[in-house]
Design brief:
With 692 residues, the protein is an alpha+beta fold. The protein contains 15 helices and 35 strands. The strands form nine sheets. The chain has an eight-stranded antiparallel β-sheet, covered by helices on one side. Strands 20, 22, 23, 24, 26, 27 and 35 form a seven-stranded mixed β-sheet that branches. A six-stranded antiparallel β-sheet has the order 8-7-6-5-4-13, with helices on one face.
């Protein structure tokens, strides 16, 4: 064995030389990390790393997995589902150092984004708009499946551990020491005693609520809180993993990287594309369409929508649950899984995959609609995904069972949603009319439904790029999504220009957010008639035939302007002036003239002067030569001319711009004018033109 210092190490090791042979004994004893996982599925059924099964019927955000040594954490969010009979996992946030990936489908919204990639240690693959996989720096991986059905839409989250996790984690996944019986350790150190590795709530008087509640997070702890995101600690640059591969000449040199996973599994070989990737084949132009401010606003919106409840009761569990109907439900589920999901082969590959019939049975027992297939279909996804991942990691099983291995290598976990042909390794060839980005889930002939937009309908170019506007869809966008855009320009004089409707290709990277590049370069320069608002009425189509209802987004300086789309009214904040189309706070000075300031009480649309004098040479007793005096005289003349010009211009603006609200709350309404005293007298109607 060769030992040498590498990188920044103590000087002792740089001078140390080994002169005797060292015998190294490797004992493969602590191998309980192999072929196991922690998961939260359906509504939600949980399994710890050590094999403790239980249910959690609470609503909120919870720490599913937290590493004790590294700045790594996985949080899940749950909300009411299944008609209020249960809570389902609907969101997951994965953090490593400052890096943060979020997949959240809660509260009738969709946020799928790489929120922060500052450290560059968290990696991931988006298999489809319904499936993602993330890789932590030390080899642990997280899989996410979003299952949508008529009765519920739960998210299944699977965490596959690495050796670095043993005795080093905490949360809903337990503390992973190889013993299932002590997994219910609360955050404060207290314990809930477990009598059986499969927690039957009808025996033990309900779910282990106290344990689950102890891992619920407050708003301050939430990985969806922008304030906490800004304070996340970075990944330690010294945490590097080194291997010494043998070179062709027989020598060995150390190779170190912050991502051990890069040497364990090649992400490039995974189906799909890198999570958070911003480029698409259709994005030929350089368009800055992902905006940090928009993501922060969306996170704030999620926080305002979130309602925490202490617990959720399931009445049907208390009334109908028993061993008899449980055993019957297990048999029914297992028959379905064997017939449709390679259930027998999955059980041979992993006892965990074979145990999904138990989770399926509990959901069948409490399902409000006895004919619903949601429980069995979701269990099918779990069976195939767990077996596929376990087989991929177990080289001994691969060698002993090549035919079963090939079967799971070639499977598509979501079965292409029944709308395509599986080509192997989660790759689908969709039937005509179904979108490949969603693995054939989205029917492109159906018009999308827009559920949210950039800034809630307002994009401020002072804060955001506003080069492309976001339209989040309820059921998904596609690789062929098209934006139908009609732009309207509103000027300070009251003029309105409506542009001809334009069709532009949308950018749909994550399968939910359609970004529409702005097709017009509107005039925003200083002028007698400044442009105040551009409203883009946009409809989205996944096939350029069936379009959604048009949804407006206004681009304006929202610092002081408020635009009412339905009435086309522009309101000015009374604490501001609007000078040459720019919002100026009361008392703020003109950058080009220190003697001019904003006073909305006097005039909303023009600078005011306070009579101050510009510094002159008389204040300092020096002798000025003729060569200096002449240029100063010229400068003085030009300054006076500019001041007179500005006064003349402001008088003109004062007359034209009173179409908009001032401190007296006067306002102008397109296409007719309403004037309330003491506003200025204006023409009876504005001019409107149409631009071809």
């Amino acid at each position: 064995m060769k030992i040498e210092a590498f990188g920044e190490v103590d000087s002792f090791w740089k001078k140390c030389k080994l002169r005797t042979k060292i015998q190294v004994v490797v004992r493969d004893q602590d191998h309980f990390w192999k072929n196991t996982l922690c998961y939260a599925t359906n509504d939600p059924r949980l399994k710890t790393f050590d094999g403790q099964y239980y249910s959690m019927q609470q609503e909120g955000e919870f720490i599913m997995y937290k590493h004790k040594q590294y700045p790594v954490e996985v949080q899940i969010e749950t909300e009411l589902c299944n008609g209020g009979w249960a809570s389902c996992t609907c969101g997951v946030s994965v953090r490593a150092g400052k890096d943060l990936f979020v997949v959240n489908h809660c509260h009738d919204d969709h946020l799928v984004a790489a929120v922060n990639t500052a450290d560059g240690v968290l990696d991931g693959v988006q298999r489809s708009s319904y499936s993602q996989e993330f890789y932590l720096p030390y080899g642990t991986s997280i899989q996410v499946y979003y299952f949508v059905s008529t009765w519920w839409s739960p998210m299944n989250v699977y965490i596959y551990p690495s050796p670095a996790d043993m005795n080093n984690v905490e949360g809903l996944c337990g503390h992973f020491n190889g013993n299932w019986s002590d997994d219910f350790v609360h955050r404060n150190g207290a314990k809930t005693q477990s009598q059986s590795y499969y927690w039957r709530w009808w025996w033990w008087g309900g779910d282990p609520v106290d344990f689950s509640k102890s891992w619920q997070v407050s708003d301050d702890e939430s990985l969806l809180n922008p304030d906490r995101i800004a304070k996340l600690s970075k990944w330690n640059e010294e945490e590097q993993y080194c291997v010494c591969p043998e070179k062709l000449d027989g020598d060995r040199e150390p190779t170190c990287h912050r991502r051990e996973a890069d040497s364990c599994a090649k992400i490039e070989d995974k189906p799909g594309k890198r999570f958070g990737s911003l480029k698409t084949d259709r994005d030929r132009r350089s368009v800055n369409y992902l905006d940090e401010h928009d993501i922060i606003e969306r996170l704030h919106n999620l926080m305002t929508k979130r309602i925490y409840k202490r617990s959720i009761s399931r009445v049907k569990r208390e009334v109908k649950a028993s061993d008899d109907n449980y055993d019957k439900a297990v048999d029914e589920c297992q028959q379905y899984l064997n017939a449709n999901c390679n259930g027998a082969d999955a059980a041979s590959a992993s006892s965990i995959a074979g145990n999904t019939s138990n989770d399926c049975a509990q959901d069948r027992m409490v399902d409000e609609n006895a004919d619903s297939s949601a429980a069995t279909e979701s269990a099918c996804v779990s069976t195939k995904s767990v077996a596929k991942e376990i087989v991929e990691r177990d080289i001994e099983f691969q060698a002993a069972n090549p035919s079963v291995t090939q079967k799971f290598e070639q499977t598509c976990v979501d079965n292409c949603h029944g709308n395509g042909v599986c080509k192997g390794n989660d790759t689908c060839e969709c039937y005509g009319g179904f979108d490949p980005l969603s693995n054939c889930k989205v029917n492109v002939s159906e018009p999308p439904e827009i559920i949210s937009t950039t800034g809630g309908g307002v994009c401020n170019p002072k804060m955001k790029a506003c080069e492309a506007l976001r339209y989040t869809t309820k059921h998904g966008c596609s690789v062929e999504s098209v934006c139908k855009v009609t732009a309207k320009e509103f000027y300070q004089s009251g003029n309105k220009v409506t542009h001809e409707t334009t069709y532009v290709a949308a950018i749909c990277d994550n399968g939910w957010d359609a970004y529409c590049p702005i097709p017009f370069n509107s005039r925003r320069k200083r002028s007698v008639d400044p442009l105040l608002v551009v409203e883009y009425e946009t409809a989205i189509s996944n096939n350029n035939i069936s379009f959604s209802i048009s949804t407006p987004v206004a681009v304006l300086d929202s610092t002081c302007l408020l635009f009412h789309s339905s009435t086309e009214v522009i309101t000015i904040d009374p604490q501001y002036c609007l000078i040459a189309g720019t919002c100026v706070l009361s008392g703020e000075r003109d950058p080009g003239n220190a003697c001019s300031y904003c006073s909305p009480d006097k005039d909303t649309y023009a600078w005011q002067t306070d009579g101050c004098d510009e510094p002159t040479s008389n204040k300092t007793p020096v002798i000025i030569g003729v060569a200096v005096a002449v240029p100063l005289a010229v400068i003085l003349f030009v300054t006076v001319a500019i001041i007179l010009y500005k006064k003349h211009k402001s008088n003109k603006i004062r007359t034209e711009s009173s179409l908009y609200d001032n401190v007296m709350r006067c306002h102008f309404k397109y296409p007719t004018l309403r004037v309330e005293k003491p506003c200025y007298e204006m023409p009876s109607s504005p001019n409107e033109t149409t631009s071809e």
